[in-house]
Amino acid sequence: MSGDYFMNTNINITNSEYDDLISSKATKSSLLKNIIIAFIVGGLICCLGQFITDRALDFGIDKEVANTISCITLIFIGALLTALKLYSRIGKVAGAGSTIPITGFSNSVVSPAIEFKSEGFIFGIGANMFKVAGPVLVYGITSSVILGFVYYLIHYVF
Amino acid sequence: MTYLFVFITGGIICAIGQVLIDKTKITPARILSLFVTLGVILTFLGIYEPIVNFGKSGATVPISGFGYSLFKGTVKAIEEKGFIGIFTGGITATSGGIAAAIVFGFLASLFAKPSLK
Amino acid sequence: MKVGKQTIKFETLPCIFSTSSMVGPKEMQGPLASYFEQSSNDIYFGEKTFEKAESKMLNTCINHLISKNGLANNDIDLIFSGDLLNQCISSSFAIRDLEIPFLGLYGACSTFCEGLLLSSICIEANVAQQIIASASSHFCSAERQYRMPLEHGNQKSTTSQATVTGCGAALVTNSKKLDNGIHITYATPGKIVDLGVKDMSNMGAAMAPAVYSTIANHLNDTDRTLDYYDLVITGDLGVHGSDMLVELFKRENIDISSKHKDCGALIYDTTVQDVICGGSGCGCVASVFSSYIFNELKNKNLNKILLIATGALMSPLSSYQGETIPSIAHAISIENEVK
Questions:
Q1: A57, A63 Cβ separation under 8 angstroms
Q2: ipTM summary value
Q3: Which of A111, B114, C171, C225 has the most C-beta neighbours closer than 10 Å?
């Protein structure tokens, strides 16, 4: 123990030094393992989507409709797994592998809906359903309209 | 063979997302917005279409594929309806997914109760 | 009486007469399970929402503290209580029907020590004789206010901590009731320290400098060294934050690691309980002190401790606005034998 009677009360470290110290002490998440799991889970979800599309095509359904059927089915599966409290468990392990596929979008719509039920139908479920996934629609739609406008200018005006 | 391409394409897109989450402190919610916007931009630039032709569902199931559908729908509507298509095309093409998410979310909230695992 | 720069010396020796604790199911799977007085297997505590559950838990805990000491509600002069939720609702609703004067506190996870400190001041000033200091937190109510929905599938950062579902209440009295003689001798309210940490999932590291500042000031003001204390107990730095605290002391050539324990690391078994770096939340230090530590003091296994509760004073709003995390730590010197 110190013989230091009067301690230095000023913290002798700059913000950036402290930041470096934090980085050096924090446990690193094992990037390689995370990437491999994300790759496998993400790949498998996409294969499931392909499988559903192919079965729909087998029935002679039009390609675009088949894609939509696949999309809706995956969203249903994501919603079901969320309601059964399984999706959060998958997400804990798979990370981006289960966040980025459309099932993850479904999870981000369904999970706040369940969570905010306690505040009622309007201000709870209704107002909070897109609390997490709302930005996806905002930026997806906004960027598609802006670039659609640019596309229109290029192809029809000039 | 198709499934291998699907698996690899979908896997790579998700792996890129994982690297961003682990390396840059971008939260998963931001990753989703980033990927959907990138999907729109890459489709506009004509880069995403070849990826979809190669990876099929591997490129359409990830959220960037949502951006792909949005922009592809916009282009289709512009070609069919002209200027108004800029506004109607994107959501028309993705309406199935959006409606499904809303309805399933609502139904799930009726039956499920949040709790600890 | 003020001593030194920022420390209060209590000459009337306010006494922590009794404590009571209540926790949820996950805490009962942890290493301190046998010390908690009350618990619930139901994360809802029989209520309909998590917020009501937290209030119910705190209400049960306070009622138990009053009744087990043979007191009635009107024997209590004042309650200091706080929690993590907006507008302090857990405390307000827990205390709504008790008909005891109530002063609500917010100090994030430092609330419990803030309450003990204010209680001691009131005892010292002889404006009240029997005061309850309490604090609570609930994993699910905190999660939905601060983070993502429970069912959202995401990975937690390797530095994150899990909010404890638990609460603790302490009955602070004047020293005329000298049954066990556990006294609050000094208190050092902390200054806000902010070393620019922005990461809301690394609150332990954000708070460690505040702990350093408070300990250093406390020791200077009281002319003590770390040797004086049997144990320095921090509230909720977690495993990673504790490492950071050790590092900060190392830079001053002081080894605190042998004297230091952290409530966030004590309450869970971090190797198996899926809590990453341990517990956090107002209820963490409140429940651990009110059970395990008070027990150790009573049994004289510990005689002189410095209890430091730490608070990360940000909100989700301030974080989204790009603000850093202002942190605070309040220290209370609790001693068995007083010369």
A1: yes
A2: 0.93
A3: A111
- Give the closest residue to A18 by CA, choosing from B48, C75, C205: C205
CATH architecture of the domain C183-335 equals 3-Layer(aba) Sandwich (3.40)
Residue in A2, A15, A107 to test binding to C, most C beta-carbons within 10 Å: A2
Give the pLDDT of chain A (158 residues) as one tens digit per residue: 344 456 788 888 899 999 999 988 888 878 899 999 999 999 999 999 999 999 999 999 999 899 999 999 999 999 999 999 999 999 999 999 999 999 999 999 999 999 999 999 999 999 999 999 999 999 999 999 999 999 999 998 87
Q: Model pTM greater than 0.90?
A: yes
Q: What are phi and psi of B82, to 5 degrees?
A: 80, -145
In chain C, what are the domain boundaries? 2-173, 183-335
Angle among Cα C151, C153, C155 to the nearest 5 degrees reads 125
Measured CA to CA, the distance from residue B54 to residue B39 in angstroms comes to 15
Using the beta-carbon criterion (under 8 Å), do A118 and C48 form an inter-chain contact?
A: yes
Number of Cβ atoms within 10 Å of the Cβ of A4: 14
Task: Please give the CATH architecture assigned to the domain spanning C2-173.
Answer: 3-Layer(aba) Sandwich (3.40)
Are C155 and A92 in contact (CB < 8 Å)?
A: yes
Using the 8-state DSSP alphabet, how is residue C189 labeled? Answer: P
Q: Where are the domains of chain B?
A: 2-111
Q: List chain A domain ranges.
A: 33-133
